[in-house]
Amino acid sequence: MDADERFMREALAEARAAAEAGEVPIGAVVVFEGRVIARAHNRRELDEDPSAHAEFSAMVAAAHALGRWRLTGCTVYVTLEPCTMCAGLMVNARIDRCVYGATDPKAGAVGSLYDLSRDSRLNHAFEVRSGVLEQECAEVLRTFFAAARTRELPRETPDDVPRANDRPSSQPRIPQPRVLLALDSFKGSAQSARVEAWVQEGVERACPGVRVRCLPIADGGEGTLEAIGATLGGIEQTASVTGPLGSPVRARYLQGAGERGDIAVIEMAEAAGIEYSPRTQSAALRATTRGVGELLLEALKAGARTVYFAIGGSATSDGGAGFLQALGAQLLDERGEQIAPGLAGLADLAHIDIAPALKVLTGCRLVVLSDVDNPLVGARGAVCTFGPQKGLGSDAANDADRTDILRKLDARMVAYGRRLDAARGGVCLDAEPPARRFRSVLGVPGAGAAGGLGAALLALGAQMVPGGNAVLDLVGFDEAVANADLVITGEGMIDAQTAHGKAPVAVARRAKRFHKPVVALGGGRAEQLEAVYAEGVDLVLPIVRAPMSLAQALSPEETRRNLICAGEEALRAYLLRNAH
Length: 580
What we know:
With 580 residues, the chain is an alpha/beta fold. The protein has helices at 3-20, 44-47, 54-66, 84-93, 134-152, 192-206, 224-232, 268-272, 281-286, 290-301, 321-326, 342-345, 355-360, 382-390, 399-425, 449-459, 467-474, 477-482, 503-513, 530-534, 550-554, 556-577, and strands spanning 27-32, 35-41, 74-80, 97-102, 127-129, 178-183, 211-214, 235-242, 248-257, 263-267, 306-310, 330-332, 351-353, 365-370, 463-466, 486-494, 518-525, 539-542.
Protein backbone atom coordinates (compact mmCIF):
# COMPACT_ATOMS: atom_id res chain seq x y z
CA MET A 1 0.00 0.00 0.00
CA ASP A 2 1.40 3.40 -0.97
CA ALA A 3 1.36 6.42 1.31
CA ASP A 4 -1.63 7.99 -0.47
CA GLU A 5 -3.77 4.92 0.19
CA ARG A 6 -2.67 4.85 3.82
CA PHE A 7 -3.63 8.46 4.45
CA MET A 8 -6.87 8.10 2.49
CA ARG A 9 -7.86 5.39 4.96
CA GLU A 10 -7.44 7.99 7.69
CA ALA A 11 -9.82 10.25 5.76
CA LEU A 12 -12.24 7.34 5.37
CA ALA A 13 -12.24 6.85 9.14
CA GLU A 14 -13.31 10.49 9.45
CA ALA A 15 -16.03 9.95 6.84
CA ARG A 16 -17.44 7.04 8.83
CA ALA A 17 -17.40 9.19 11.97
CA ALA A 18 -19.47 11.75 10.08
CA ALA A 19 -21.99 9.07 9.10
CA GLU A 20 -22.34 7.95 12.71
CA ALA A 21 -23.15 11.55 13.63
CA GLY A 22 -25.80 11.72 10.91
CA GLU A 23 -23.71 13.94 8.63
CA VAL A 24 -22.98 13.30 4.95
CA PRO A 25 -19.92 11.01 5.22
CA ILE A 26 -16.99 13.00 3.90
CA GLY A 27 -13.68 12.97 5.74
CA ALA A 28 -10.32 14.66 5.32
CA VAL A 29 -6.83 14.75 6.77
CA VAL A 30 -3.90 17.10 6.18
CA VAL A 31 -0.41 15.57 6.01
CA PHE A 32 2.83 17.46 6.54
CA GLU A 33 6.25 15.78 6.37
CA GLY A 34 4.69 12.33 6.43
CA ARG A 35 2.50 12.94 9.50
CA VAL A 36 -1.19 13.67 9.89
CA ILE A 37 -1.34 17.14 11.48
CA ALA A 38 -5.10 17.73 11.19
CA ARG A 39 -8.23 15.74 10.56
CA ALA A 40 -11.92 16.59 10.25
CA HIS A 41 -15.23 15.40 8.88
CA ASN A 42 -18.33 17.08 7.56
CA ARG A 43 -20.25 18.93 10.32
CA ARG A 44 -22.55 21.30 8.46
CA GLU A 45 -25.70 20.10 10.22
CA LEU A 46 -24.20 19.79 13.69
CA ASP A 47 -22.48 23.18 13.59
CA GLU A 48 -25.11 24.89 11.42
CA ASP A 49 -22.12 26.17 9.44
CA PRO A 50 -22.14 26.17 5.60
CA SER A 51 -18.31 26.19 5.58
CA ALA A 52 -17.95 23.12 7.79
CA HIS A 53 -16.86 20.86 4.93
CA ALA A 54 -14.37 18.17 5.92
CA GLU A 55 -11.38 19.47 3.96
CA PHE A 56 -12.13 23.12 4.76
CA SER A 57 -12.16 22.41 8.50
CA ALA A 58 -9.07 20.21 8.24
CA MET A 59 -7.11 22.97 6.49
CA VAL A 60 -8.09 25.51 9.13
CA ALA A 61 -6.96 23.08 11.85
CA ALA A 62 -3.69 22.44 9.97
CA ALA A 63 -2.96 26.17 9.83
CA HIS A 64 -3.43 26.37 13.61
CA ALA A 65 -1.18 23.32 14.08
CA LEU A 66 1.61 24.83 11.98
CA GLY A 67 1.13 28.35 13.28
CA ARG A 68 0.88 29.83 9.77
CA TRP A 69 -1.80 30.35 7.15
CA ARG A 70 0.35 29.07 4.31
CA LEU A 71 0.06 25.29 4.05
CA THR A 72 3.11 24.94 1.82
CA GLY A 73 4.41 21.37 2.03
CA CYS A 74 0.99 19.96 2.92
CA THR A 75 -1.17 17.39 1.16
CA VAL A 76 -4.93 17.37 1.71
CA TYR A 77 -6.61 13.95 1.55
CA VAL A 78 -10.39 14.01 1.15
CA THR A 79 -12.85 11.23 0.33
CA LEU A 80 -14.89 13.33 -2.17
CA GLU A 81 -13.66 15.74 -4.83
CA PRO A 82 -13.56 19.26 -3.34
CA CYS A 83 -16.17 21.88 -4.25
CA THR A 84 -15.37 25.41 -5.42
CA MET A 85 -15.23 26.72 -1.84
CA CYS A 86 -12.74 24.12 -0.67
CA ALA A 87 -10.69 24.15 -3.87
CA GLY A 88 -10.51 27.92 -3.54
CA LEU A 89 -9.15 27.61 -0.03
CA MET A 90 -6.56 25.15 -1.31
CA VAL A 91 -5.38 27.80 -3.76
CA ASN A 92 -5.33 30.49 -1.08
CA ALA A 93 -3.56 28.25 1.44
CA ARG A 94 -0.87 27.29 -1.10
CA ILE A 95 -1.13 23.54 -0.55
CA ASP A 96 1.23 21.25 -2.49
CA ARG A 97 -1.21 18.47 -3.33
CA CYS A 98 -4.81 17.34 -3.10
CA VAL A 99 -5.61 13.63 -3.14
CA TYR A 100 -9.27 12.64 -3.34
CA GLY A 101 -11.25 9.43 -3.59
CA ALA A 102 -14.62 9.68 -5.34
CA THR A 103 -15.34 12.21 -8.09
CA ASP A 104 -18.22 14.67 -7.70
CA PRO A 105 -19.74 15.25 -11.17
CA LYS A 106 -22.28 17.72 -9.73
CA ALA A 107 -19.94 20.02 -7.80
CA GLY A 108 -16.33 18.88 -8.20
CA ALA A 109 -13.91 21.74 -8.70
CA VAL A 110 -10.56 20.04 -9.28
CA GLY A 111 -11.37 18.27 -12.51
CA SER A 112 -15.10 17.60 -12.91
CA LEU A 113 -17.07 20.86 -13.33
CA TYR A 114 -14.04 23.11 -12.89
CA ASP A 115 -10.33 22.69 -12.29
CA LEU A 116 -9.13 25.35 -9.88
CA SER A 117 -5.97 23.37 -9.21
CA ARG A 118 -4.31 24.57 -12.42
CA ASP A 119 -6.22 27.64 -13.56
CA SER A 120 -3.52 29.93 -14.97
CA ARG A 121 -5.55 32.99 -13.94
CA LEU A 122 -5.04 32.16 -10.25
CA ASN A 123 -1.90 32.84 -8.25
CA HIS A 124 -1.21 29.25 -7.21
CA ALA A 125 -1.45 25.77 -8.70
CA PHE A 126 -1.31 22.43 -6.91
CA GLU A 127 -0.97 18.79 -7.87
CA VAL A 128 -4.08 16.58 -7.85
CA ARG A 129 -4.35 12.80 -7.65
CA SER A 130 -7.83 11.36 -8.04
CA GLY A 131 -9.46 7.96 -7.56
CA VAL A 132 -7.46 6.80 -4.53
CA LEU A 133 -9.62 4.14 -2.83
CA GLU A 134 -12.43 5.45 -5.03
CA GLN A 135 -14.73 2.47 -4.55
CA GLU A 136 -14.49 2.58 -0.76
CA CYS A 137 -15.06 6.34 -0.67
CA ALA A 138 -18.06 6.11 -2.99
CA GLU A 139 -19.53 3.15 -1.11
CA VAL A 140 -19.56 5.06 2.17
CA LEU A 141 -21.65 7.76 0.49
CA ARG A 142 -23.95 5.28 -1.29
CA THR A 143 -24.61 3.39 1.93
CA PHE A 144 -25.41 6.58 3.82
CA PHE A 145 -27.86 7.91 1.24
CA ALA A 146 -29.52 4.51 0.80
CA ALA A 147 -30.15 4.38 4.54
CA ALA A 148 -31.37 7.99 4.50
CA ARG A 149 -33.89 7.21 1.74
CA THR A 150 -35.18 4.25 3.73
CA ARG A 151 -35.70 6.45 6.79
CA GLU A 152 -37.60 9.02 4.72
CA LEU A 153 -40.23 6.56 3.36
CA PRO A 154 -43.76 7.40 4.58
CA ARG A 155 -44.99 5.01 7.26
CA GLU A 156 -48.76 4.58 7.39
CA THR A 157 -48.61 1.53 9.64
CA PRO A 158 -46.39 0.51 12.57
CA ASP A 159 -43.06 -1.18 11.80
CA ASP A 160 -44.30 -4.57 13.02
CA VAL A 161 -47.35 -4.65 10.70
CA PRO A 162 -46.45 -5.92 7.20
CA ARG A 163 -47.63 -3.90 4.23
CA ALA A 164 -49.07 -5.61 1.16
CA ASN A 165 -46.03 -4.80 -0.94
CA ASP A 166 -43.45 -5.67 1.71
CA ARG A 167 -41.02 -8.50 1.01
CA PRO A 168 -39.87 -10.67 3.90
CA SER A 169 -36.50 -9.50 5.15
CA SER A 170 -33.65 -11.97 4.81
CA GLN A 171 -31.80 -10.28 7.69
CA PRO A 172 -32.84 -10.14 11.35
CA ARG A 173 -33.66 -6.72 12.75
CA ILE A 174 -30.57 -6.15 14.87
CA PRO A 175 -28.35 -3.11 15.43
CA GLN A 176 -25.68 -2.56 12.78
CA PRO A 177 -22.62 -4.44 14.11
CA ARG A 178 -19.26 -2.83 14.64
CA VAL A 179 -16.53 -4.94 13.03
CA LEU A 180 -12.81 -4.66 13.71
CA LEU A 181 -10.58 -6.00 10.94
CA ALA A 182 -7.12 -6.93 12.21
CA LEU A 183 -5.56 -9.20 9.59
CA ASP A 184 -1.92 -9.97 8.91
CA SER A 185 -0.57 -10.00 5.36
CA PHE A 186 -1.26 -13.04 3.18
CA LYS A 187 2.30 -13.85 2.18
CA GLY A 188 2.83 -13.89 -1.56
CA SER A 189 -0.58 -12.32 -2.22
CA ALA A 190 -1.25 -9.02 -0.45
CA GLN A 191 -0.18 -6.83 2.44
CA SER A 192 -2.35 -6.35 5.52
CA ALA A 193 -4.08 -3.12 4.47
CA ARG A 194 -5.09 -4.47 1.07
CA VAL A 195 -6.32 -7.73 2.62
CA GLU A 196 -8.50 -5.74 5.00
CA ALA A 197 -9.90 -3.57 2.22
CA TRP A 198 -11.09 -6.67 0.38
CA VAL A 199 -12.53 -8.29 3.50
CA GLN A 200 -14.34 -5.02 4.21
CA GLU A 201 -16.02 -5.23 0.79
CA GLY A 202 -17.44 -8.60 1.73
CA VAL A 203 -18.51 -7.49 5.19
CA GLU A 204 -20.38 -4.53 3.70
CA ARG A 205 -21.96 -6.82 1.11
CA ALA A 206 -23.39 -8.93 3.93
CA CYS A 207 -24.69 -5.96 5.89
CA PRO A 208 -24.85 -2.52 4.23
CA GLY A 209 -24.28 0.16 6.82
CA VAL A 210 -22.04 -2.02 8.99
CA ARG A 211 -19.44 0.02 10.86
CA VAL A 212 -15.96 -1.23 10.01
CA ARG A 213 -12.60 -0.24 11.43
CA CYS A 214 -9.43 -1.49 9.76
CA LEU A 215 -6.30 -1.98 11.83
CA PRO A 216 -3.41 -3.39 9.75
CA ILE A 217 -1.24 -5.67 11.91
CA ALA A 218 1.80 -7.94 11.70
CA ASP A 219 3.82 -10.18 14.00
CA GLY A 220 7.34 -9.04 13.24
CA GLY A 221 7.55 -10.61 9.81
CA GLU A 222 6.52 -9.38 6.38
CA GLY A 223 4.18 -6.38 6.48
CA THR A 224 5.31 -4.99 9.84
CA LEU A 225 6.58 -1.80 8.26
CA GLU A 226 3.23 -1.09 6.59
CA ALA A 227 1.19 -2.05 9.66
CA ILE A 228 3.03 0.29 12.01
CA GLY A 229 3.21 3.06 9.42
CA ALA A 230 -0.55 2.93 8.81
CA THR A 231 -1.16 3.87 12.44
CA LEU A 232 1.90 5.81 13.60
CA GLY A 233 2.58 7.65 10.36
CA GLY A 234 6.11 8.24 9.13
CA ILE A 235 7.62 8.18 5.66
CA GLU A 236 8.80 5.13 3.77
CA GLN A 237 12.40 5.73 2.79
CA THR A 238 14.53 3.74 0.39
CA ALA A 239 18.28 3.22 0.59
CA SER A 240 20.86 1.33 -1.42
CA VAL A 241 22.54 -1.19 0.90
CA THR A 242 24.63 -4.34 0.69
CA GLY A 243 22.47 -7.32 -0.19
CA PRO A 244 22.94 -10.71 1.47
CA LEU A 245 25.21 -11.93 -1.32
CA GLY A 246 27.21 -8.70 -1.63
CA SER A 247 25.43 -6.97 -4.51
CA PRO A 248 23.60 -3.68 -3.80
CA VAL A 249 19.85 -3.88 -3.17
CA ARG A 250 17.20 -1.19 -2.69
CA ALA A 251 15.65 -1.58 0.76
CA ARG A 252 12.76 0.28 2.37
CA TYR A 253 12.43 1.38 5.97
CA LEU A 254 9.99 3.59 7.88
CA GLN A 255 11.32 6.88 9.21
CA GLY A 256 9.77 9.55 11.42
CA ALA A 257 6.88 7.59 12.96
CA GLY A 258 5.26 8.30 16.33
CA GLU A 259 4.15 11.49 18.04
CA ARG A 260 7.69 12.85 18.24
CA GLY A 261 8.68 11.55 14.82
CA ASP A 262 11.69 9.69 16.23
CA ILE A 263 10.65 6.09 15.59
CA ALA A 264 12.04 4.01 12.72
CA VAL A 265 10.97 0.53 11.61
CA ILE A 266 13.31 -1.83 9.77
CA GLU A 267 12.24 -5.09 8.13
CA MET A 268 15.49 -7.02 7.88
CA ALA A 269 14.15 -9.01 4.92
CA GLU A 270 14.15 -5.79 2.89
CA ALA A 271 17.96 -5.83 3.02
CA ALA A 272 18.72 -9.52 3.55
CA GLY A 273 15.57 -11.44 2.63
CA ILE A 274 15.55 -15.00 1.41
CA GLU A 275 14.16 -13.90 -1.96
CA TYR A 276 17.64 -12.53 -2.78
CA SER A 277 19.24 -15.97 -2.45
CA PRO A 278 19.27 -19.06 -4.69
CA ARG A 279 19.18 -21.11 -1.44
CA THR A 280 22.28 -23.15 -2.24
CA GLN A 281 24.92 -24.26 0.25
CA SER A 282 27.39 -21.74 -1.13
CA ALA A 283 24.95 -18.83 -0.94
CA ALA A 284 23.78 -19.75 2.56
CA LEU A 285 27.37 -19.84 3.85
CA ARG A 286 28.30 -16.38 2.58
CA ALA A 287 24.99 -14.55 3.15
CA THR A 288 25.52 -11.45 5.31
CA THR A 289 23.37 -9.10 7.40
CA ARG A 290 25.59 -6.08 6.63
CA GLY A 291 22.78 -4.34 4.75
CA VAL A 292 20.57 -4.41 7.86
CA GLY A 293 23.23 -2.50 9.77
CA GLU A 294 23.51 -0.02 6.91
CA LEU A 295 19.75 0.57 7.08
CA LEU A 296 20.07 1.24 10.82
CA LEU A 297 22.80 3.80 10.16
CA GLU A 298 20.52 5.56 7.67
CA ALA A 299 17.74 5.71 10.25
CA LEU A 300 20.08 7.05 12.93
CA LYS A 301 21.36 9.78 10.60
CA ALA A 302 17.76 10.89 10.05
CA GLY A 303 17.16 11.24 13.80
CA ALA A 304 15.71 7.92 14.92
CA ARG A 305 15.88 7.33 18.66
CA THR A 306 13.77 4.16 18.85
CA VAL A 307 14.20 1.53 16.16
CA TYR A 308 11.94 -1.51 15.79
CA PHE A 309 13.38 -4.51 13.94
CA ALA A 310 11.11 -7.01 12.22
CA ILE A 311 13.45 -9.95 11.68
CA GLY A 312 11.51 -12.60 9.79
CA GLY A 313 12.26 -14.04 6.35
CA SER A 314 16.05 -13.85 6.27
CA ALA A 315 18.52 -15.43 3.84
CA THR A 316 21.30 -15.32 6.44
CA SER A 317 22.91 -17.53 9.06
CA ASP A 318 25.80 -15.26 10.07
CA GLY A 319 24.65 -14.61 13.63
CA GLY A 320 24.35 -10.92 12.82
CA ALA A 321 28.11 -10.63 12.24
CA GLY A 322 27.68 -8.47 9.13
CA PHE A 323 25.20 -6.25 10.98
CA LEU A 324 27.75 -5.66 13.74
CA GLN A 325 30.51 -4.94 11.23
CA ALA A 326 28.37 -2.32 9.49
CA LEU A 327 28.02 -0.51 12.82
CA GLY A 328 31.77 -0.48 13.33
CA ALA A 329 32.23 -3.54 15.55
CA GLN A 330 35.52 -5.40 15.11
CA LEU A 331 35.18 -9.09 14.23
CA LEU A 332 38.78 -10.14 13.72
CA ASP A 333 40.70 -13.27 12.79
CA GLU A 334 44.04 -14.38 14.31
CA ARG A 335 45.91 -11.84 12.12
CA GLY A 336 43.75 -8.96 13.38
CA GLU A 337 41.85 -8.58 10.09
CA GLN A 338 38.09 -8.40 9.61
CA ILE A 339 36.58 -11.80 8.90
CA ALA A 340 34.88 -12.59 5.59
CA PRO A 341 31.09 -12.31 5.27
CA GLY A 342 28.60 -14.94 6.35
CA LEU A 343 28.65 -18.11 8.36
CA ALA A 344 31.74 -19.08 6.37
CA GLY A 345 33.64 -16.13 7.84
CA LEU A 346 32.80 -17.19 11.41
CA ALA A 347 35.17 -20.14 10.99
CA ASP A 348 38.09 -17.68 11.24
CA LEU A 349 36.72 -15.54 14.08
CA ALA A 350 39.13 -15.00 16.99
CA HIS A 351 37.98 -11.77 18.68
CA ILE A 352 34.95 -9.44 18.84
CA ASP A 353 34.90 -5.82 20.02
CA ILE A 354 31.39 -4.32 20.06
CA ALA A 355 32.39 -1.03 21.75
CA PRO A 356 32.47 0.94 18.46
CA ALA A 357 28.95 -0.22 17.63
CA LEU A 358 27.68 0.72 21.08
CA LYS A 359 29.14 4.19 20.65
CA VAL A 360 27.21 4.63 17.39
CA LEU A 361 24.02 3.59 19.21
CA THR A 362 24.38 6.01 22.12
CA GLY A 363 20.93 7.35 23.02
CA CYS A 364 19.13 4.90 20.75
CA ARG A 365 16.72 2.19 21.90
CA LEU A 366 16.51 -1.02 19.86
CA VAL A 367 13.43 -3.25 20.00
CA VAL A 368 13.31 -6.63 18.27
CA LEU A 369 9.91 -7.85 17.06
CA SER A 370 10.19 -11.60 16.66
CA ASP A 371 7.61 -14.24 15.83
CA VAL A 372 9.89 -17.14 16.90
CA ASP A 373 11.43 -18.13 20.24
CA ASN A 374 14.30 -20.28 18.97
CA PRO A 375 17.67 -20.04 20.75
CA LEU A 376 20.90 -19.32 18.88
CA VAL A 377 22.24 -22.88 18.95
CA GLY A 378 21.19 -26.49 19.37
CA ALA A 379 18.50 -28.60 17.72
CA ARG A 380 16.11 -25.61 17.68
CA GLY A 381 18.83 -23.11 16.88
CA ALA A 382 19.47 -20.85 13.92
CA VAL A 383 21.49 -23.38 11.91
CA CYS A 384 19.68 -26.64 12.58
CA THR A 385 16.11 -25.29 12.39
CA PHE A 386 16.25 -22.54 9.78
CA GLY A 387 19.48 -23.35 7.93
CA PRO A 388 18.08 -26.00 5.57
CA GLN A 389 15.39 -23.70 4.17
CA LYS A 390 18.17 -21.23 3.30
CA GLY A 391 20.33 -23.86 1.59
CA LEU A 392 22.57 -25.18 4.37
CA GLY A 393 23.14 -28.88 3.80
CA SER A 394 21.68 -28.79 0.29
CA ASP A 395 24.85 -30.34 -1.16
CA ALA A 396 24.65 -33.38 1.13
CA ALA A 397 24.30 -36.77 -0.50
CA ASN A 398 21.87 -38.09 2.13
CA ASP A 399 20.15 -37.19 5.38
CA ALA A 400 23.02 -38.45 7.52
CA ASP A 401 25.52 -36.25 5.71
CA ARG A 402 23.14 -33.27 5.99
CA THR A 403 22.80 -33.81 9.73
CA ASP A 404 26.58 -33.96 10.10
CA ILE A 405 27.05 -30.72 8.13
CA LEU A 406 24.47 -28.90 10.23
CA ARG A 407 26.01 -30.20 13.47
CA LYS A 408 29.45 -28.87 12.49
CA LEU A 409 28.04 -25.50 11.45
CA ASP A 410 26.10 -25.28 14.71
CA ALA A 411 29.36 -25.82 16.60
CA ARG A 412 30.75 -22.83 14.69
CA MET A 413 27.76 -20.79 15.89
CA VAL A 414 28.39 -21.92 19.48
CA ALA A 415 31.94 -20.56 19.29
CA TYR A 416 30.63 -17.30 17.84
CA GLY A 417 28.04 -16.97 20.62
CA ARG A 418 30.70 -17.44 23.28
CA ARG A 419 32.81 -14.69 21.74
CA LEU A 420 29.74 -12.44 21.71
CA ASP A 421 29.34 -13.14 25.43
CA ALA A 422 33.00 -12.23 25.99
CA ALA A 423 32.50 -9.01 24.04
CA ARG A 424 29.50 -8.12 26.19
CA GLY A 425 31.55 -8.75 29.30
CA GLY A 426 34.18 -6.31 28.10
CA VAL A 427 31.83 -3.31 27.93
CA CYS A 428 29.52 -1.61 30.40
CA LEU A 429 25.93 -2.76 30.00
CA ASP A 430 24.87 -2.00 33.58
CA ALA A 431 22.18 0.36 32.33
CA GLU A 432 20.21 -2.59 31.00
CA PRO A 433 16.91 -3.26 32.82
CA PRO A 434 17.07 -6.51 34.81
CA ALA A 435 14.54 -8.15 32.50
CA ARG A 436 17.01 -7.87 29.61
CA ARG A 437 20.02 -9.31 31.45
CA PHE A 438 21.13 -12.82 30.63
CA ARG A 439 24.23 -14.91 31.12
CA SER A 440 24.72 -16.03 27.54
CA VAL A 441 23.19 -15.25 24.17
CA LEU A 442 23.36 -18.95 23.31
CA GLY A 443 20.08 -19.93 24.92
CA VAL A 444 18.01 -16.73 24.98
CA PRO A 445 14.60 -17.33 23.33
CA GLY A 446 14.57 -15.48 20.02
CA ALA A 447 18.36 -15.21 19.73
CA GLY A 448 18.23 -17.62 16.79
CA ALA A 449 15.77 -15.49 14.82
CA ALA A 450 16.92 -14.35 11.36
CA GLY A 451 19.90 -16.69 11.35
CA GLY A 452 21.15 -15.41 14.69
CA LEU A 453 20.68 -11.67 14.05
CA GLY A 454 18.62 -11.76 17.24
CA ALA A 455 21.76 -12.67 19.19
CA ALA A 456 23.74 -9.72 17.78
CA LEU A 457 20.93 -7.31 18.65
CA LEU A 458 20.71 -8.73 22.16
CA ALA A 459 24.46 -8.27 22.56
CA LEU A 460 23.96 -4.56 21.80
CA GLY A 461 21.34 -4.25 24.55
CA ALA A 462 18.22 -4.59 22.40
CA GLN A 463 14.90 -5.53 23.97
CA MET A 464 13.29 -8.61 22.41
CA VAL A 465 9.49 -8.78 22.49
CA PRO A 466 6.84 -11.00 20.87
CA GLY A 467 6.15 -9.29 17.56
CA GLY A 468 2.39 -9.76 17.53
CA ASN A 469 1.77 -8.21 20.94
CA ALA A 470 4.17 -5.33 20.37
CA VAL A 471 2.51 -4.35 17.10
CA LEU A 472 -0.94 -4.55 18.72
CA ASP A 473 0.27 -2.15 21.42
CA LEU A 474 1.72 0.24 18.86
CA VAL A 475 -1.43 0.39 16.74
CA GLY A 476 -3.79 0.85 19.72
CA PHE A 477 -5.57 -2.47 19.42
CA ASP A 478 -7.10 -2.56 22.90
CA GLU A 479 -8.91 0.73 22.42
CA ALA A 480 -10.21 -0.40 19.03
CA VAL A 481 -11.41 -3.83 20.16
CA ALA A 482 -13.25 -2.40 23.15
CA ASN A 483 -15.65 -0.72 20.73
CA ALA A 484 -16.14 -3.71 18.41
CA ASP A 485 -18.86 -6.37 18.27
CA LEU A 486 -16.89 -8.77 16.08
CA VAL A 487 -13.18 -9.20 15.34
CA ILE A 488 -11.99 -10.67 12.04
CA THR A 489 -8.33 -11.65 11.86
CA GLY A 490 -6.29 -14.01 9.69
CA GLU A 491 -3.13 -14.85 7.76
CA GLY A 492 -2.04 -16.97 4.84
CA MET A 493 -2.08 -20.32 6.69
CA ILE A 494 -3.81 -21.24 9.93
CA ASP A 495 -1.97 -24.16 11.51
CA ALA A 496 -0.13 -25.25 14.65
CA GLN A 497 2.46 -22.46 14.16
CA THR A 498 -0.34 -19.90 14.39
CA ALA A 499 -0.80 -20.81 18.06
CA HIS A 500 2.84 -19.94 18.86
CA GLY A 501 2.80 -16.17 18.77
CA LYS A 502 1.51 -15.50 15.25
CA ALA A 503 -0.62 -12.41 14.68
CA PRO A 504 -4.10 -14.04 14.59
CA VAL A 505 -3.62 -15.66 17.98
CA ALA A 506 -2.18 -12.46 19.44
CA VAL A 507 -5.37 -10.75 18.24
CA ALA A 508 -7.60 -13.49 19.64
CA ARG A 509 -5.98 -13.43 23.07
CA ARG A 510 -6.45 -9.67 23.34
CA ALA A 511 -10.03 -9.84 22.01
CA LYS A 512 -10.97 -12.42 24.62
CA ARG A 513 -9.99 -10.00 27.39
CA PHE A 514 -12.93 -7.95 26.13
CA HIS A 515 -15.18 -11.00 25.50
CA LYS A 516 -15.35 -10.41 21.74
CA PRO A 517 -16.01 -13.18 19.17
CA VAL A 518 -13.13 -13.82 16.78
CA VAL A 519 -13.20 -15.21 13.24
CA ALA A 520 -9.88 -16.12 11.60
CA LEU A 521 -9.57 -16.23 7.80
CA GLY A 522 -6.80 -18.26 6.19
CA GLY A 523 -5.63 -19.17 2.74
CA GLY A 524 -5.53 -22.70 4.11
CA ARG A 525 -5.90 -24.53 7.41
CA ALA A 526 -4.47 -27.59 9.10
CA GLU A 527 -6.71 -30.55 9.88
CA GLN A 528 -6.26 -30.18 13.64
CA LEU A 529 -6.62 -26.69 15.13
CA GLU A 530 -7.35 -27.39 18.79
CA ALA A 531 -4.42 -25.21 19.88
CA VAL A 532 -5.69 -22.28 17.80
CA TYR A 533 -9.22 -22.56 19.16
CA ALA A 534 -7.85 -22.86 22.69
CA GLU A 535 -6.15 -19.47 22.27
CA GLY A 536 -9.45 -17.67 21.65
CA VAL A 537 -10.33 -18.09 17.97
CA ASP A 538 -14.02 -19.03 17.66
CA LEU A 539 -14.20 -19.88 13.96
CA VAL A 540 -11.62 -20.56 11.24
CA LEU A 541 -12.76 -19.94 7.66
CA PRO A 542 -10.55 -20.99 4.72
CA ILE A 543 -10.96 -18.34 2.04
CA VAL A 544 -10.61 -20.36 -1.18
CA ARG A 545 -14.11 -20.35 -2.70
CA ALA A 546 -13.59 -22.89 -5.53
CA PRO A 547 -11.07 -25.51 -6.69
CA MET A 548 -7.96 -23.75 -8.02
CA SER A 549 -4.21 -24.19 -8.25
CA LEU A 550 -1.89 -22.63 -5.68
CA ALA A 551 -0.54 -20.21 -8.29
CA GLN A 552 -4.08 -19.12 -9.13
CA ALA A 553 -5.04 -18.76 -5.47
CA LEU A 554 -2.00 -16.54 -4.84
CA SER A 555 -2.81 -14.19 -7.71
CA PRO A 556 -4.03 -10.76 -6.56
CA GLU A 557 -7.32 -11.01 -8.45
CA GLU A 558 -8.26 -14.41 -7.00
CA THR A 559 -7.09 -13.34 -3.55
CA ARG A 560 -9.38 -10.33 -3.81
CA ARG A 561 -12.40 -12.44 -4.82
CA ASN A 562 -11.70 -15.04 -2.16
CA LEU A 563 -11.33 -12.46 0.61
CA ILE A 564 -14.48 -10.58 -0.39
CA CYS A 565 -16.47 -13.83 -0.18
CA ALA A 566 -14.78 -14.81 3.09
CA GLY A 567 -15.56 -11.42 4.63
CA GLU A 568 -19.20 -11.83 3.66
CA GLU A 569 -19.38 -15.31 5.18
CA ALA A 570 -17.66 -14.19 8.39
CA LEU A 571 -20.23 -11.47 9.02
CA ARG A 572 -23.15 -13.69 8.01
CA ALA A 573 -21.95 -16.24 10.56
CA TYR A 574 -22.00 -13.49 13.20
CA LEU A 575 -25.49 -12.36 12.14
CA LEU A 576 -26.73 -15.95 12.26
CA ARG A 577 -25.31 -16.37 15.75
CA ASN A 578 -27.19 -13.26 16.87
CA ALA A 579 -30.41 -13.91 14.95
CA HIS A 580 -32.25 -14.96 18.07
